[in-house]
Structures are given as C-alpha cells and as structure tokens.
Amino acid sequence: MFKIVVLISGGGSNLQAIIDHIQAGNINAEISAVISNKADVLGLERAATAGIDHHVLDHTIFASREAFDESLAQIIESYEPDLIVLAGFMRILSDGFVNKFQGKLINIHPALLPKFKGLDTHQRALDADEKEHGASVHFVIPELDAGTVIIQGIVPVKSDDTADALQQRVHKIEHVIYPQAVKYLAEEGLTLKNGHLYHQGKTLLEPFKEYLD
Ligand code: GAR
C-alpha cells in the first residue's frame, strides 16, 4: 500500500479532503500518520476521527530549526512513507530535511506560482489587481515555494473581493487539486527526476517532440 504522512499546523481542511477521497475509494493509498507542530488544532481531531495515528511535535521546545527537523524526520521515517504531504504546515524546513526527502515531499501553496511566494498571498493578489488567482501543488526544494509544480487550480478574482472571500474561494479549489495530485503520485506513476516531471518513466518535458518536423 502507498503510504502517506501528512504535516499540518491548523485546520486541516486539505487533510480532510485527502481523507475523504481515500475513504471513498478514489485514491488507493493510506495516511499512516498526521504530525502537527501545534497542539489543539482541528486537523488533529480530523486525524483522530479517521482513526489515523497523530503526533504533536511542538517546535518551540527545540533549540534550533535543525533540531526540530531532525525529530520530525525521525517520526516520519518510522512510518516509511512513500509521500510526505505538507497541508498548511506553516514552518520553513531546513535544507537538510528537504534534501533527505526530495522527490517525496509536496506542498500546497495558495497562489498561482511562481506568483506570490511566501505569505499574505490573497491580499497581495488583490493589491496587484490580478484577474485570476488560485493554488499550486508543488514538489518542495530548499528554495521557498520554488519547486516543480504538479497541478494548479485557478479561481476568478471579483471586483468586490476581500482577502477573506478570495481565501475561501481558493480553499475550495485546493480541496480539488490536492487529492488529484496525491492520486497522480500514488497511482499514476508521476515522479520527479532532476527537477522534471516523469509519467510512468517518460518525461513530461517534451513528450510530443516526435510530432515536430
Ligand atoms: C491552505 O490554504 C494552504 O494553501 C496554506 O495554508 C492553508 C491550510 O489550510 N498553505 C500555506 O500558506 C503554505 N505556505 P488547511 O489547514 O485548512 O488545509
């Protein structure tokens, strides 16, 4: 069975979307564990309700980012996962951690990357007068929000939008694209090699070159 560990910091609605798809038989995988760096968050309750192992690893008790990441890696490795899913995990991971799991580590970011890396993406999209906004699922590399994109979901920006209204619209599309990305990886042979996507061993970089003159 394809095994997933999910890292969260909060509400876990993306976690819930993936749980729902697995329970409905849409994704052939199991979530082995959920790990939160914050106690008492709704995402942990969602894991408990679904009967999934869950852990709190409080980053504030560690002397350094590297020490936290080392403990986090130990818990993750004890589950021998095929995929690690960052679902609203609001911590920057050290280069050592990211390199250890590169190719198995994905994140969802609430913007159409490469636009609006970092925080406050909805307000920044409004300030920039964007007509479209959305979310991106991408592989994680040491550079923040810069890894290869797997799938994006686009939503319109309305003239009377607030950051909150836009955030809610983006959240809905996240719940569609994140389970889809997990399915690509769990079932459909999507992998990352040297920063490029491969589908069942064949590159997606230039798959149609045989049709060119
Ligand atoms: C999501 O909107 C996700 O895109 C964002 O946190 C939210 C978590 O919601 N992630 C980031 O901003 C990462 N930089 P959830 O806990 O309900 O899934």
Structure description:
- This protein is of the alpha/beta class.
- The protein has one domain (2-211): Formyl transferase, N-terminal domain (Rossmann fold).
- The chain is 33% helix and 24% strand.
- It contains 6 helices and 10 strands, in the order βαβαβαβαβαββαβββ.
- The chain has helices at 13-23, 42-49, 65-78, 95-100, 121-127, 163-187; strands at residues 3-8, 30-36, 53-56, 83-86, 105-109, 132-139, 149-156, 190-193, 196-199, 202-203.
- Strands 3-2-1-4-5-6-7 form a 7-stranded mixed beta sheet, covered by helices on one side. A 3-stranded antiparallel beta sheet has the order 8-9-10.
- Helix 1 links the parallel strand 1 (3-8) and strand 2.
- Helix 1 packs parallel to helix 6.
- The longest helix has 25 residues, at 163-187.
- Glycinamide ribonucleotide is lined by residues 8, 10-14, 43, 87-88, 108-110, 135, 171, 174.
Overview features:
213 residues, alpha/beta, Rossmann fold, 7-stranded mixed β-sheet, 3-stranded antiparallel β-sheet, 6 helices, 24% strand
How are helices and strands ordered from N to C? EHEHEHEHEHEEHEEE
Q: What is the CATH homologous superfamily assignment?
A: Formyl transferase, N-terminal domain
CATH-derived topology: Rossmann fold
Architecture, according to CATH?
Answer: 3-Layer(aba) Sandwich
Compute the gyration radius: what is it?
Answer: 17 Å
Uncertain residue segments: none
Return the structural class: alpha/beta
**Cα end-to-end separation:** 43 Å
Shape field = globular
Strand order of the largest sheet: 3-2-1-4-5-6-7
- Counting structural domains, the number is 1
Bound molecules: glycinamide ribonucleotide
CATH class reads Alpha Beta
Major sheet characteristics: 7 strands, mixed
